[in-house]
Amino acid sequence: MSITKTLSKLRAHVAVAILAVLSPLLLLVALMWKLFGQLFCCCSPKSVVGEVAVVTGGGHGLGRAIALELADKGCHIAVVDINLPGAENTVKQIQEKAKVRAKAYKVDVSNYLELVELNNQVAGDLGPVTVLINNAGILLHRKSLDPEPSDVQQMIDVNLAAHFWTRMVFLPTMKAMRRGYLVTISSLAGLFAVPYNTTYSATKAGTTAHMRALRMELSLERQKDIHVCTAMPTFLEANEELATLTNQVKISSVYPLISAKAAARRIVHGMLRGEREILLPGLASFLYRLLTLLPVGWQDKAIIIISGSKLEQFCTLRK
Ligand SMILES: NC(=O)c1ccc[n+]([C@@H]2O[C@H](COP(=O)([O-])OP(=O)(O)OC[C@H]3O[C@@H](n4cnc5c(N)ncnc54)[C@H](O)[C@@H]3O)[C@@H](O)[C@H]2O)c1
User: Fold this and answer.
1) Regarding the domain delimited by 46-240+255-290, which CATH topology (the fold level of the hierarchy) does it fall under?
2) Ligand 1 center to residue 113 CA distance, Å?
3) From the alpha carbon of 58, which atom of ligand 1 is closest?
4) How many angstroms does the Cα of residue 190 sit away from the middle of ligand 1?
5) Is 62 close to ligand 1, i.e. is its CB under 6 Å away?
6) For residue 258, which of 274, 242, 276 has the smallest C-alpha distance?
7) Is the CB of 237 under 6 A from ligand 1?
8) What is the CA radius of gyration of the chain?
């Protein structure tokens, strides 16, 4: 091996050793930072009055709850869904409770050209989009234990690829206006990959990584007023089929289901405070940090002990 290669290997090892020595100190500073942030609430929530938000998958569940929460905060809402009656129902609920403009759009988020057209329409109807909520998602395969290739592909298209298309379509306006919010609804399954939910876990892990990389790119481009926030909830009372199944196999005894309204309130509050990642429930954040300190084999065993057999039953019930 050449001397240059040996030297660069040595440099890398020294850097890791320094980081290891400093990590207790860094950990302490991070904890104090978090504590002071909570106690003195340094980042008060910003206002979105008069801004225009696109909420994908806004025709049902969590997307609908987020659309209603943003409307409550004075934001005009483009409710986007592949299911137009669902989106129209959300618009009706917005108009009953808030004095903002809202419109329903039938769009398939996995289709880039439909998104380009959507951006033009929303800009004309409501104004330039400065808030993007990437919420639309597919939660279950038709055959959970043995999905068809086309079902796997569709989940990847909606849960992962669509986030690249929405970013390409909506981010340039935010960059030109030098402000905006990009919120992505990922899942705890993206951090704690779960058995028998391979595609879902992989798409959610991918979208979390996408947003982490994007946040760094915006920081390098000095776009400090474009906030990227990823929400990672556990099971919600949002999608009825999923909620029923989780109750049947008693996954909810591991942690109770969170209502869509409570999740939406927490996500919008966090987004307006400039939080980067929101884990729901907050306890999951500690669990994740503790778990990643363990060897990978132990991490796998811990997930299997907590949820493995329940998830297998869950998929068997759905077969
Ligand atoms: N429900 C949960 O337990 C849970 C847990 C963690 C994360 N999440 C995530 O939260 C988000 C919302 O979940 P939910 O439970 O409200 O789901 P939901 O099924 O109730 O609603 C999803 C909405 O997205 C729409 N949609 C699906 N494919 C679309 C497409 N191609 N184009 C446009 N719209 C499309 C659907 O029509 C539906 O209105 C998803 O991204 C999901 O992965 C949900």
Assistant:
1) Rossmann fold (3.40.50)
2) 21
3) 39
4) 15
5) yes
6) 242
7) no
8) 21
Distance 2 CA to ligand 1 centre (A): 54
**Torsion angles phi and psi, residue 233, rounded to 5:** -85, 160
- Ordered by start, the domain boundaries in the chain are 46-240+255-290
Q: Is the CB of 109 under 6 A from ligand 1?
A: yes
Token pair 């969590």 in the structure block, residue: 62
Spacing, Cα 120 to ligand 1 middle (Å): 24
pLDDT digits (tens, 9 = 90+) for 148-174: 999 999 999 999 999 999 999 999 999
pLDDT attached to residue 83: 98
What is the per-residue pLDDT for 43?
A: 63
Give me the chain's average pLDDT, please.
91
Q: How far apart are CA 88 and CA 80, in angstroms?
A: 9
Ligand 1 atom with least separation from CA of 240 = 20
- For the Cβ of 138 lying below 6 angstroms from any atom of ligand 1, the answer is yes
Nearest to 281 by CA among 311, 254, 308: 254
C-beta neighbour count of 252 within 10 angstroms = 16
Residue 279: closest CA among 190, 159, 193: 190
Q: Tell me the residue type at 92.
A: K
From ligand 1's centre to the CA of 131, what distance in Å?
18
Interval 219-241: pLDDT, tens:
999 999 999 999 999 989 988 88
DSSP SS3 for 85: helix
CA-188 nearest atom, ligand 1: 6
CA distances from 94 to 71, 118, 128, 227 (A): 7, 20, 20, 25
Structure-block tokens of residue 229: 């926030």
CA end-to-end span of the chain: 55
45-69 core/surface letters (b: 16 or more CB in 10 A; e: else): ebebeebbbbbbbbbbbbbbbbbbb
Ligand 1: atom nearest CA of 162 is 31
SS3 48: coil
